[in-house]
Specification:
The protein is 29% helix and 23% strand. It has 8 helices and 14 strands.
Length: 317
């Protein structure tokens, strides 16, 4: 088996993100626990291969212990909406950035939660057993060193570190939230704009968002899963992809990035021409607001369609 070179490039990481589901040679779908070999073939084309096809590699950059992503994938053409106030719109198009808020700043106290406090004993019991087994079966451990005191001391330490990691993850996780829907949402107009009379929404697709962020391999984009925390837990490493069922109406797609340098939020450069399909004005906005938005778009040379909300159409009876 070839030695790994670990010569990562951005292009190779992007390739893996886009082709990680199956072997690029035989098409075999990867399953949890399988080995995925990332590197280059004889013609220096990037490839990700299964064990059976790994012989085709001329350079093995890295091998992954393949795992299914925590998030549900979004189809490229899925429509995404971001509802905002005029001030946030001005900031976005003026700076040409997309804001990722700190998970700590979200109103939902369950952001990044593993479960409810009343069920924490079950969580702790499971991981105590898990760590106890891992310590006793760790390669290279000498049986004479595995005293009961050693095992319990290190089991408790690992659980303590695991529990502490939850708050650390909240400090270093940054999120951009989107609503996935073929049409606009009246509820979203009211929920995600502090002044719905002066609100607007930008409409895009998953593919546009992905490309507008320059296919950054550090940013993961996927659907949120809505669960009953009274019956199950989220996950150790993917808790930010889970929310309570009470929020199911949000149909949220989020982009997530991890950073140990930022604090309150991150502004990522974004290609607005690629990102925005159209801009929609709140159905509750006065007529003068349309003129303001149009002037702002002209000032910043954002040549995209501007529409009033579909909810303003007149019915007949």
């Amino acid at each position: 088996m070839q030695e790994m070179t670990h010569r990562h490039t951005r292009e190779l990481d992007v390739f893996y993100n886009e082709h990680r589901d199956a072997c690029t040679n035989c098409g075999r779908r990867f399953q949890n626990g399988m080995c995925a070999h990332l590197g280059y073939d004889a013609e220096r084309n990037p490839v990700v291969l299964c064990d059976d096809c790994a012989y085709l590699l001329s350079e093995t950059v890295v091998r992954y212990h393949w795992m299914e992503p925590e998030y549900e994938k979004v189809s490229p053409e899925s429509k995404l909406w971001r509802y905002m106030d005029l001030s946030k719109f001005l900031s976005m198009i003026g700076k040409k950035t997309l804001y990722f808020a700190s998970a700590e700043s979200f109103e939902d106290i369950f952001e990044g939660a593993k479960g409810t406090l009343e069920r924490k004993e079950k969580w702790d019991a499971f991981y105590l057993d898990f760590f106890r087994e891992a310590i006793q079966t760790a390669p290279g451990m000498k049986p004479e060193d595995l005293t009961d005191e050693y095992i319990e001391e290190n089991t408790t330490r690992l659980l303590s570190e695991l529990n502490a990691s939850g708050n650390i993850q909240r400090k270093h996780t940054f999120i951009s939230c989107w609503h996935c829907n073929e049409s606009e949402s009246e509820a979203m107009w009211k929920l995600y704009s502090t002044n719905v009379n002066n609100a607007l929404a930008i409409q895009t697709t998953y593919q546009q968002l992905y490309e507008a962020l320059d296919k950054d391999p550090a940013i993961k984009i996927g659907k949120v899963k809505y669960i009953d925390f009274s019956k199950r837990f989220s996950s150790v490493n993917g808790s930010f992809w889970y929310k309570r069922k009470a929020f199911e109406h949000e149909r949220e797609v989020r982009a997530i990035i991890t950073s140990h340098q930022a604090h309150s939020g991150i502004e990522k450069a974004v290609d607005l021409e690629k990102l925005i399909s159209a801009v929609y004005i709140s159905p509750y906005a006065p007529k003068w607001f349309e003129d303001v938005v149009r002037d702002v778009m002209q000032k910043y040379e954002l040549n995209k369609p501007l529409y009033y909300s579909e909810m303003l159409k007149t019915p007949f009876y």
